[in-house]
């Protein structure tokens, strides 16, 4: 691990300004992703600004009946919160499908949204990787791509976004609140938060250097039945090959986001309009532009079957 300095921020704007001042500075939250990347020297920050004292660990209701989740709320606290369990069940289920109990105790809301890909080449510093070092190449293309994206990739990168919580946040139409280094704030719809790789795969999201996530807000509950189904190689401690976050209403309409298939949570609103016609009708549209490899073509069938299981469960649970 390369040497670095460590400071604890005392205000959100101060944290943002401190990171912005140094090109090599980064925020530290639970550290469960960042410290792993530092040990492998994939991330080499010169300065860590710890955000644990910023009092961003509260969950509050909003005047319009929604929920405001502090950026530092742990995954455990969020998934166990009574209002989340009652009104945003897809979020509780998605979080609990991720990592392990110990990791969820440390992992935070912002850190989870900002975790980096699990592409095996990204983690192997003996190999080139455009996401680690732009312009160095992408050995996954033409290499081992079983875990990687079937849709949304580019000729620079076909990594997937690995997280579970963001799939639920996408279905719930969450908004990400930030403070910039100049003290101004912005609200970013989650649909616009994670980037597709295009020609700049090193940039996973639209945050500026030094922009601090302060909270995630959810609109008022939308009712319906909430599902998160994750298919993976083993029952725990594994990232999704394919996952489905869904909210299905009594009449069969609803929302669906796919995980494990793309560089960001994959929700295609025009495709979910086909939910009453069944899973195949949805995935035909959601994956219309897919470019699977021979290694990961199976994800297309898996996505259809996983969604079919969700739809069947929704029907079976109707009163
Ligand atoms: C063995 C293992 C298994 C796992 N399995 C799963 C899984 O199945 N599903 C899943 O979803 N996740 C899984 N994870 C990932 C885990 O959920 C993430 O590591 C965790 O959520 C990251 O949160 P953190 O608070 O520890 O972030 P950190 O590691 O502290 O930070 C992550 C990134 O976010 C940035 N950051 C943190 N807070 C802010 C902020 N407020 N504003 C701006 N930037 C910020 C940091 O600078 C860093 O770049 C697994 C992790 C491990 C180690
Ligand atoms: S898919 Fe992306 S993360 Fe994986 S090796 Fe290629 S450039 Fe790197």
UniProtKB/TrEMBL annotation:
Give the matching Pfam families: FAD_binding_5
Residues annotated as signal peptide: none
- Residue limits of the FAD-binding PCMH-type domain? 1-223
Keywords, sorted A to Z: FAD, Flavoprotein
| Alphabetized InterPro entries for the sequence | CO_DH_flav_C, CO_DH_flav_C_dom_sf, Diverse_Substr_Oxidored, FAD-bd_PCMH, FAD-bd_PCMH-like_sf, FAD-bd_PCMH_sub1, FAD-bd_PCMH_sub2, Mopterin_DH_FAD-bd
Highest taxon above the source species: Bacteria
- Name the chain's protein: Aldehyde oxidoreductase FAD-binding subunit PaoB
In the UniProt record, what gene is named as encoding this protein?
paoB
């Amino acid at each position: 691990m390369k040497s670095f300095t460590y400071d604890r921020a005392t205000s959100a704007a101060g944290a943002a300004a401190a990171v912005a001042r140094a090109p090599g500075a980064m925020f530290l939250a639970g550290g469960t992703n960042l410290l792993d990347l530092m040990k492998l020297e994939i991330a080499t920050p010169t300065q860590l600004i710890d955000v644990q004292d910023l009092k961003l660990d509260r969950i509050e209701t909003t005047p319009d009946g929604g929920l405001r989740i502090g950026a530092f709320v742990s995954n455990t606290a969020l998934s166990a919160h009574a209002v989340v369990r009652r009104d945003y069940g897809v979020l509780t289920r998605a979080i609990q499908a991720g990592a392990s109990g110990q990791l969820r105790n440390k992992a935070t809301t912002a850190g989870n949204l900002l975790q980096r890909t699990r592409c095996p080449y990204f983690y192997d510093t003996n190999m080139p990787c455009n996401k680690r070092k732009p312009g160095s190449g992408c050995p996954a293309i033409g290499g081992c791509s079983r875990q990687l994206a079937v849709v949304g990739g580019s000729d620079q990168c076909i990594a997937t976004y690995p997280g579970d919580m963001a799939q639920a946040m996408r279905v719930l139409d969450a908004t990400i609140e930030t403070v910039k280094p100049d003290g101004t704030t912005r609200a970013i719809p989650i649909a616009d938060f994670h980037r597709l790789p295009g020609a700049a795969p090193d940039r996973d999201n639209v945050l500026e250097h030094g922009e601090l996530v302060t909270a995630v807000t959810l609109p008022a509950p939308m009712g319906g039945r909430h599902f998160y189904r994750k298919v993976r190689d083993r029952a725990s401690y594994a990232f999704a090959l394919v996952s489905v976050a869904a909210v299905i209403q009594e009449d069969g309409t609803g929302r669906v986001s796919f995980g494990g298939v793309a560089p960001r949570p994959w929700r295609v609103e025009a495709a979910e309009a086909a939910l009453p016609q069944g899973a195949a009708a949805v995935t035909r549209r959601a994956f219309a532009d897919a470019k699977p490899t021979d290694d990961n073509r199976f994800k297309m069938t898996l996505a259809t079957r996983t969604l079919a299981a969700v739809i069947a469960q929704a029907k079976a649970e109707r009163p």
